[in-house]
Write a structure and sequence with these properties.
By secondary structure, the protein is mainly α.
């Protein structure tokens, strides 16, 4: 786990041998277990990689996202033996692999939902605060959150207490007041898949 968490820190090595090795390590498996099994293996490993890399302090740091997207793209190309110059988005859509930037946002927003409903991990504390207008305004009843101001735009804006409410307030109203975590996840996945593959 420690290795996976630290893997994101090498954002300046998006084309390093470690990324190629991650994908190439499966090359000998496809002949013996079949393409479907390799696809399943990639799905599991990429989900684990993104889960640990994108749930900690870097959140949506550009380098970390670029690195993991390279791994995802390379894995998809390998599974179907497509050429590098061919467009990868239709392949990701056919695999139901959410692009990394959306997967990162998904993780943050799920934690935000849990925090608002007091089911988040204890280490998050109580970082989110609902926006409560003092009088009847258009924002009333829209489930908006207060976005704290930060002195450091780059690092401060990536803090969970800032990033989570900013992303939350961008969600359509049909998603924010979901009655359960399961419903919230389903609506959020649908929203992000439409944005990633149909916009």
């Amino acid at each position: 786990t420690k290795h996976i968490i630290n893997y994101k820190s090498s954002s300046n090595k998006a084309r390093s041998p470690s990324v190629r090795d991650f994908v190439a390590s499966f090359s000998s498996l496809q002949a013996s277990v079949g393409r479907a099994d390799v696809h399943c293996g990639f799905s599991s490993l990429l989900h684990l990689q993104r889960h640990y890399s994108l749930t900690f302090t870097s959140w949506l740091r550009q380098g970390a996202v670029a690195l993991l997207q390279l791994v995802q793209n390379s894995a998809a190309r390998f599974v179907i033996s497509t050429r590098r110059r061919e467009h990868i988005t239709p392949v990701l859509a056919s695999f139901h692999w959410m692009p990394v930037q959306y997967r990162a946002k998904f993780r943050v927003l799920v934690l935000a939902y849990k925090a608002l409903h007091r089911t988040a991990p204890a280490y998050l504390g109580n970082p989110l605060h609902r926006h409560a207008p003092s009088r009847a305004l258009r924002s009333a009843g829209r489930e908006l959150l207060i976005v704290p101001r930060t002195k450091c735009r780059s690092r401060g804006d990536r803090a969970f207490s800032v990033l989570a409410p900013a992303l939350w307030n961008q969600l359509p109203l049909v998603v924010r007041p979901s009655p359960s975590l399961g419903v919230f996840k389903t609506r959020l996945k649908t929203l992000f898949f439409v944005k990633a593959f149909q916009d």
